[in-house]
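Pasting as-is:
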Amino acid sequence: MKLITEDTVRHLLRTKELRDGAPFELTQPSLLTPSAQSFLREHHIQVLYNLKKSGAAPVAHFSGQKKEPGVDQQLVSKQVLCECEHLSNLLYFPDFAETAFPGEWWLYFEQQQQWLARFQQQGAKSGLTHTLGQAPATPLIIAPEMRRRWLFTTGEVHYQIEKILYLMTTESLSKEQSVFFQWSEELLKVIRSTKNE
């Protein structure tokens, strides 16, 4: 069994034997160190085992995890899931004090985080809909001293949504993309409905 370390992967990149975003095909049983797996993920390099030469059936896996026989592959890639997690973290609005929004608005954003968590777990395969839950009846009013912070934070939320949609497009996830797109459009519409104090 061949051991592949982060230094091995870096050397392959330097010598142009491997490129960012290109698959890394292994033709013999190999063990990837955790740092090598992390490095490959950071550079969007998918690991493909092609063990035909050694007599074993070919197995495709990503970041060192072999696909078990009879188990469905994950519909949404690890990268999309990580970006969804980042979006969920943005919806915590960490730059704002607890008193910045009324409690019902904090609850609304928490419901969106819960929707994202369900999306990450289920994708669109089990009938997940884009329903957001009801936006609070009272408008969200942003104080003048928080306006720039609000614009920056909501801009980051919008950017993150666009990034996820782009990744889904490149992975041909039309069903998941449709559900996520509808959810995100409704969320952005609610966010844009804020008022200045």
